[in-house]
Amino acid sequence: MTLLRSGSATDTGLVRSVNQDLAVESPSLFAVADGMGGHAGGEVASRLAIEALGVAFGRQPTGAGLSEAVTEANTVVWQRSQENPELRGMGTTLTAMAVVNEDGHDVLALVNVGDSRSYRFHDGEMIQITTDHSLAEEMVRTGELTSAEAAVHPHRHILTRALGVSPEVTVDLWKIQPVRGDRYLLCSDGLTNELDTAQLAEVLSSVADPRRAAELLVRAARSHGGSDNITTVVVDVVVGEDGDASVPAVAAVAADFRTASPEAEEAAGDQGEWAQASTPELPASSRRERRRAKRRERRAARGRRLITFRTLLFVILFGAVLAGAFYAVRWYDTNSYFVGVSNNELVIYQGRVGGFLWYHPQQVERTGVTTADVSAQYVSALQAGVEETSVASARTYVANLVCTRELQVNPAAICSSSATVTTTTTTTTTRPTTTSVPAPSTTKVT
Ligand code: MG
Fold it and tell me: Is there a single domain that holds both residue 229 and residue 322?
């Protein structure tokens, strides 16, 4: 019995506008396709190939069946390109791995067409299983180029074999015994163009979680240029042929086939959920731990959203309170007046005697009346500031003081408050210093 654990990742990269790569990550079938042939053709080719591969392999989940499934995928892509002139010339690479049962034993069957690759990471050593079907690689085989020269050769992207470009295709097939601890990497050339074998091995040897490893590989390729679409599938052999017999054989669920395309991930709404659903053969403890981690992530995300909402609400309410307090203070200050003395002249001010908070009294009118024009008994109160409710009442108060003084001098005099006070409107700011305000004395005008 064989138990696998897997993870995948894909990215458009930093140069291309669309992602024509497609990955498959199912319990027993894993694949990477790299489409080509125009803006739409590449996406169509990789999707058709992946879909045809899954259907055909589901009918015949054997090593030969996997190879035959690739042949059927080639036919599907080829026929579609012939039917639709806009898709003519499209094609795709395809590298795939599946667990199959042959003669009572699980075997890893691996197929390849094109320059996507499959690696085996065994005992700390990276082994490239597949051979690139590219012009540069052909030149290496004939001795015209070294491997190092081929890695940077301008013809390294010219394929000598691909799916969908001709009615016939030759499929490379390997069969490998599943060994516990082995790790397999399937990837598009967007990864291997940016990272060398040592860099791939560094990530695979240091990151235990396959999904995390797949994501880090993609991220590393992006940071090294990301000139092409990047797709990775990492598959771990958790239990090999000598494993726990209670675990169901993965080949028995070969029909449970899903794709790991960006569209499929988007439809699932959560790549993590998708990855979990695609690896149901995980041990119960691992599943519980993964569910706990998911719950923690959801709680953390919910917490972040609440904090944001609460912060926004607090800022709005705090702003409203500040604005309300500001206008209340302003209303309290500007709705009061008083009569004071400036340079021996009676002056009408707006505001509170002595000021209030940051508001200082504003001089509204100079009355033209001096302290010599009013009885001496009122001068000290005026110097302290005599409060009135309005400018009009302040003027009346000053006029009454003048009349009172005239009556003291000449009891027979007849005075008029409106005729006595001459005012001058100003806007000068002053600050009376006295805070004690005696009650004003008002003389009846006759
Ligand atoms: Mg590519």
Answer: no
